């Protein structure tokens, strides 16, 4: 850099020029480091994508995590890691990665809509129906033309409606059972209590049968005695 006026040059001006050059060098160095890191991160993401397509989801997870170590703010690494975790049934962990991708606020609306859509899938699969509905609505807000998200939203809303209906039905059934039990208790309280010393109907019948049998035996005995008396009288005559 050529200074046009050396006589009027001051030390403060020189310091400013040096600082500007130093800042430029630092910026260039950081840019180079970022470019190298981005290239390395892209390599890991591409490797993860190949593994993901081969359904090697655990290995894909490892590759995506390597990419995140090099560039934690990579939308692709966060989003794709969420997909790999989802395929392994780790829905809560997948949701966290989708949230990270959403927080990065990519300029491309399809990516943001896809993040909300997959977040809704993770929530719905984890039986968090109301939260999944909110996620699907956010996805449609970003991309109103996504028919797949619209279908998933309708499905989640139908599940929520059925869940609420089942809950109300169970509550009604429980109330009916309680009312029936209360009525039975009330009926039992209104019935006259029999004295403990009172004999049962079965015992009374047994006693009655025994008395009738005794009476019958007594009559039979009396008849026999009368017959015997007649015979002896005839014999004596």
Question: Could you explain the architecture of this structure?
Answer:
The protein is mainly α and 237 residues long. Among the domains are: 29-91, Tetratricopeptide repeat domain (Serine Threonine Protein Phosphatase 5, Tetratricopeptide repeat, Alpha Horseshoe); 106-172, Serine Threonine Protein Phosphatase 5, Tetratricopeptide repeat. Helix content is 82%, strand content 0%. It has 8 helices and no strands. It has helices spanning 11-53, 57-70, 75-87, 91-103, 109-125, 129-142, 147-190, 201-236. Helix 1 (11-53) runs antiparallel to helix 2 (57-70), helix 4 (91-103) packs antiparallel against helix 5 and helix 6 (129-142) packs antiparallel against helix 7 (147-190). The radius of gyration is 47 Å and the shape is rod-shaped. The termini are far apart. The model is unreliable at 1-38 and 227-237 (pLDDT under 50).
Report the principal-axis shape.
rod-shaped
What's the total count of β strands? 0
Distance between the termini: 178 Å
Note the main sheet.
Answer: none
The helix tally amounts to 8
Specify the CATH class of the domain at 106-172: Mainly Alpha
Average pLDDT confidence is 77
What is the CATH topology assignment of the domain at 106-172? Answer: Serine Threonine Protein Phosphatase 5, Tetratricopeptide repeat
Order of helices and strands: HHHHHHHH
Helix fraction by DSSP (H/I, runs of at least 4): over 70%
Under the CATH scheme, the architecture of the domain at 106-172 is: Alpha Horseshoe
The fraction of residues in strands falls at under 5%
Cα radius of gyration in angstroms? 47 Å
Give the structural class.
mainly alpha
Unreliable stretches: 1-38, 227-237
């Amino acid at each position: 850099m050529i200074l046009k006026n050396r006589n009027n040059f001051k030390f403060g001006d020189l310091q400013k020029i040096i600082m500007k050059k130093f800042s430029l060098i630092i910026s260039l160095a950081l840019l180079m480091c970022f470019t190298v890191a981005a290239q390395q991160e892209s390599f890991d993401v591409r490797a993860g994508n190949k593994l993901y397509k081969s359904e090697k989801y655990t290995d894909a997870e490892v590759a995506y995590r390597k990419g995140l170590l090099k560039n934690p703010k990579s939308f692709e690494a966060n989003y794709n890691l969420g997909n790999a975790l989802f395929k392994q049934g780790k829905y809560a962990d997948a949701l966290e990665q989708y949230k990270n991708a959403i927080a990065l606020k990519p300029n491309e609306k399809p990516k943001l809509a896809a993040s909300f859509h997959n977040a809704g899938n993770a929530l719905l699969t984890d039986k968090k129906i109301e939260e999944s509905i909110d996620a699907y609505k956010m996805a449609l807000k970003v991309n109103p033309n996504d028919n797949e998200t619209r279908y998933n939203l309708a499905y989640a809303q139908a599940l929520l409606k059925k869940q609420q209906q089942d809950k109300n039905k169970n509550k009604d059934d429980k109330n009916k059972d309680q009312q029936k039990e209360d009525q039975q208790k009330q009926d039992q309280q209104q019935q006259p209590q029999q004295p403990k010393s009172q004999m049962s109907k079965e015992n009374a019948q047994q006693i009655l049968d025994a008395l009738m049998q005794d009476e019958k035996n007594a009559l039979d005995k009396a008849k026999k005695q009368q017959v015997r008396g007649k015979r002896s009288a005839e014999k004596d005559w």
